[in-house]
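FIELD: query
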Amino acid sequence: MTVTNDDMVRDDAPDGMGDEALESAGMAAEATELSLKEQLDAAQSEAARNLDGWQRTQAEFANARKRFEKQRAEAYANASADVAVKLLPLIDDFERALANAPATIAADPWLAGVNLIYRKMLAILDEMAVSPIPAEGAPFDPNVHEALAQEPSEVHPSGTVVREMRRGYRLGDRVIRPSLVVVAE
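FIELD: result
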């Protein structure tokens, strides 16, 4: 008895499956493989989108934190400047009072107490990083000085501050009150 190809049943095929069934099963397997590859590609692209979104969110959060810190520092500086500007007229009054104190009360403990209060206020301004702007003898700078008048001077060259009428102050690098000055002609 001779056995032909048609009579042979493949060992690896399930029972009762002919060549046509095997071909359709192979195509189904290929389709499954393609769909698995497509699923993998889709999952990888979604993971890449998620990673990109997460990185963007992290960057936005870091930028927001930096922006918040900058705004907080600016608000603190503005609040400090507001307080300092309100204290400066008191400093001016203390300076005038101490400069015009009669000589008869120079040894009076009351005047020493007033002088102590004045120095404490200056110490508070110093702690706030408020410093006086040098004026007399310095060249006139419109960024920190406000000229009230000009007068001839034999001591100072032209464009130099001759007299300070009101002391100016700055908070760090920011001018919170310009010096009122008289400038040499």
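FIELD: remark
Confidence is low (pLDDT under 50) at residues 7-11.
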